[in-house]
Amino acid sequence: MSPLIHPTAIIDKKAEIGNNVQIGAYSVIGADVVLHDNVCLQSHIVVEGPTSIGKGTQIYPFCVIGTPAQHTKYKGEPATLEIGANNIIREKVSIHRGTEIGGMSTVIGNNNFILADCHIAHDCSVGNNNVFANGVALGGHVIVGNHCFMGGFSAVQQFVRIGDIVMIGAKSLVTQDIIPFSIATGIPCDLRGVNIIGLKRQNYTPAQITHTRNIFKNLFEGEGQFSSRLESAYSRFGSDLLGGKIFDFIQSKNHRPICMPINVNFSDTEE
């Protein structure tokens, strides 16, 4: 056995193990698991297949990865879990495979930092470069974009979408879709402003940040129904890069409504 694989680890003969993979003590690797090069599994980890874990991903003790969906309609179909490269998955995280009714796959992108005690349910899709603080829980079919920060012990209801560069406050209950570039918090969540710090971290210019504020202001402030403001804002901002991302997100069909603000002045959003 390789010196990088502890002698107490149990590895199914149908598992595929790449180069320089480390598997710690008392870990159990099932059939149809693929561990790509330089994956590091510390001790006491269970991985069931079909599951693929990308290059350089590190998984800490007591994680349970790729077990079947917790869904009453799951009937044993060979749904998958795909985890990308260079993720850090800390202690006691659970991530489940997909279901037939949800597209047969749960997908985690690259360079995510998933802290201890998080849960990612069946058929979720998580993008790249996200941070999930301790205890975050995603219900089934949730979509999370890129460069998001999920506050500790926040919970996301099934079928909710969260756009790019979003910050969710700690202990929030997210029951509606959160548009890109925003901050949302509360039980239940409501929109609190533009995620200015997140935009700065992704090298958006002051002019682009001001432009984003103007889009939010036109969408959420003023008289009339949201549908009327949406139409007006789209005519002004829909063709530019930032506006296009926001309006594409809003206009995409989904199970959940768009999360709205309560008494927010977007001109006064703190920097």
What features would you describe in this structure?
The chain is α/β, with parallel strands linked by helices and 271 residues long. Helices cover 16% and strands 25% of the residues. The chain is built from four helices and 27 strands. α2 runs antiparallel to α3. The longest helix is centred in the C-terminal third of the chain and has 15 residues. It starts with 9 loop residues before the first strand and ends in a 20-residue tail after the last helix. The model has no long low-confidence stretch (mean pLDDT 94).
> Could you say what the CATH topology of the largest domain is called?
UDP N-Acetylglucosamine Acyltransferase, domain 1
SS strand fraction: 25-35%
**Distance from first to last alpha carbon:** 55 Å
Average per-residue pLDDT, rounded, comes to: 94
- Unreliable stretches, pLDDT < 50, 5 or more residues? none
The assigned CATH architecture of the largest domain is 3 Solenoid
Oligomer: single chain
Number of spatially distinct domains: 2
Helix tally equals: 4
- Label the structural class: alpha/beta
Biggest sheet architecture: 10 strands, mixed
Q: So what's the overall shape?
A: elongated
Number of strands: 27
Summarize the amount of helix as a percent range. 10-25%
Please write the CATH class name of the largest domain.
Mainly Beta
